[in-house]
Design a protein that fits this description.
25 strands; alpha/beta; single chain; 20 helices; 556 residues; globular
Length: 556
């Protein structure tokens, strides 16, 4: 029987009458929330993991970058509460959802009721008779449950083999799944499905119906199913709430991966410091083995163009953008684009701000971009970001400071004649409030995001700038720019530096005293409110953080 909710067609002809998979009574609440259209309001107020997992649009980061087209037909297996359905509807021509739970299907329909190209089939995938073939089939957090719903000696292989029969000749299967060898599981995170420590590392002994795999195991299973073309991507911190997507073509540098205490589903005990371990893993080119989860694209001939994507969804609408690195015919480009129509103006302004900033720091090369439609595109240059460059001296604070001093002196110190006395303007107060240090110096144009992570040491030794998002055409105390860069750098390497030198001592070495630092902290908070909404309301993830503890074992 079919029914419609808004534009969504729901077909329960294959429904058994029982919801075999559920988060319990909270799904009743989520259904009422979606009926009333209050998803965002509740998301900002709650601290419950199911609310975050089912309602946050951060989930869309997983596939927002993927080049679906309006000619593509997508089959979404295990569509759940529709966290990905709306995105797929917007990007593809048609979306057919298969979902075991009627309640979750209703949630999906109500939250995506305006989509006019979505059909939801309720029932077990094995029982549903599909009449079409598809360009894409997605398995987002589903493959690991094959043992519950697919018959046979190897249900995980059988699932893929069956799905393959519903693909068009050049069709692709897209899989998101945890990596059983992911670093977080070595470091005290309970296994997502069994809720037990080290369950995956112990090869799921005693578990019959759920299983995740290592990278090599996934490759073997998919190749046994007949897929020769595989592309691996690495969503971080994991595929559930990713902010960054890496690939084999663009892996993280040392000093780049920092997710300590980003735990939202359950409490956590850390056995060791994530930062130091990830740094070594990245240095040794082992990140693909220890990434927390995988996104795998199987089949087809054409390689995906995007090698890296980073998202800024926890901002006010007018500043929500993504950064992609695309590989087109062997040449890489950095692409900035808006995640919603309100942010298009912000992206288009980057070209003008690039022109304003060019030449302000005479020894820094400003990469020149171009506008194509609503996208701002820059050439990608090989090299090492400066924050990763300083990794070499992490265990020697004196050498670390000397190297930072050298970079600041040679590249981040403007010519004396370019400085002017700081004066307060209306534009300044709107963004930074009435906070400013006495007798400050400023420039006519200021890039407050001139961070070491936004500066690259190129192969020929030159330093280039490639981020023009937060450039202001009114006076801003220039020492605030240096404070932001130094504070971020210290935070990134704090685990190495804190036993050698405190943050205040570190800043003092660069002539930033505690009084000035306190003023800069207030300026930065106001700037954060400007970007993320009053009281950082769009930074709602902090509401969901669970307690985390560092294991301290001493043998005596």
């Amino acid at each position: 029987m079919q029914e419609k909710i808004g534009n969504i067609v729901i077909d329960d002809s294959f429904y058994s009458g029982d919801d075999l998979y559920t988060d319990g009574s909270i799904e009743d609440r989520i259904l009422e929330i979606c009926k009333s259209g209050k998803e965002k309001e509740v998301l900002h107020m709650s601290n419950e993991w199911p609310i975050l997992y089912h309602l946050s649009d951060i989930r869309e980061n997983l596939l927002e970058w993927y080049p679906f087209t309006k000619q593509d037909d997508v089959l979404e297996i295990g569509s759940g509460c529709g966290a990905m359905t709306g995105l797929l509807s917007k990007k593809a021509g048609s979306v057919t959802c298969v979902e075991l739970s009627r309640k979750r299907s209703l949630i999906n329909a109500y939250r995506n009721r305006d989509c006019n190209n979505v059909t939801i089939l309720i029932g077990n995938f094995e029982d549903i008779k599909l009449q079409c073939r598809y360009d894409y089939i997605t398995l987002i957090g589903v493959w690991e449950y094959s043992g519950l719903y697919i018959q046979g000696a190897n249900p995980y292989l059988a699932m893929i083999e069956k799905l393959k029969t519903f693909l068009k000749p050049q069709g692709k299967i897209i899989i998101a799944i945890e990596n059983k060898m992911g670093l977080k599981y070595w470091n005290g995170a309970p296994e997502d499905h069994t809720c037990r420590l080290y369950s995956g590392l112990n090869d799921y002994i005693g578990e019959k119906n759920v299983r995740t795999f290592s990278r090599q195991e996934i490759m073997a299973l998919l190749k046994e199913a007949g897929f020769e073309q595989l592309s691996f991507y690495y969503p971080m911190p994991d595929y559930k709430l990713p902010d960054t997507i890496y690939s084999d073509g663009m892996l993280p540098e040392t000093g780049e991966v920092r997710y300590y205490r980003s735990d939202y589903s359950t409490y956590r005990i850390y056995n060791f410091y994530d930062a130091t371990t990830y740094d070594q893993i990245c240095k040794d080119n082992m990140f693909p083995y220890f990434a927390n989860s995988f996104l795998v694209v199987c089949g087809g001939k054409q390689q995906e163009l995007c090698e890296f994507a980073k998202y800024c969804r926890e901002r006010r609408n007018q500043f929500r953008i993504s950064t992609e690195i695309r590989n087109v015919a062997g040449k890489k480009y950095v692409v900035k684009k808006a995640l919603c129509k309100e942010a298009i103006k912000h992206v288009l302004e980057m070209k003008r701000m690039e022109t304003k900033w060019n030449g302000i720091l005479s020894n820094v090369l400003c990469l020149e971009g171009r506008l194509e439609g609503d996208e701002y595109i820059l050439p990608y240059t090989e090299g090492i970001d400066l924050d990763a460059y300083f990794y070499t001296w992490r265990n020697d604070s004196e050498q670390f400071i000397k190297q930072v001093e050298k970079v600041i002196k040679e590249y981040l110190t403007p010519n004396e004649q370019d400085f002017m006395d700081f004066t307060v303007t209306r534009e300044y107060e709107e963004i930074f409030g009435d906070n400013y240090p006495p007798k400050a110096k400023s420039l006519r144009v200021t890039n407050v995001d001139c961070l070491f992570s936004n500066l690259r040491k190129m192969a020929d030794g030159r330093i280039c700038s490639f981020d023009y998002e937060w450039i202001f055409e009114f006076p801003v105390p220039y020492k605030f720019v240096l404070w932001r860069a130094l504070t971020q750098l210290y935070g990134k390497y704090m685990i190495y530096l804190k036993t050698q030198i405190s943050k205040n001592e570190f800043l003092a070495r660069f002539e930033i005293d505690t009084e000035s630092a306190a003023v800069f902290e207030k300026m930065n908070q106001k700037f954060s409110y400007y970007a993320h909404g009053e009281n950082d309301k769009e930074k709602y993830l902090v509401n969901y953080k669970k307690a985390a503890f560092m294991q301290d074992i001493r043998w005596v």
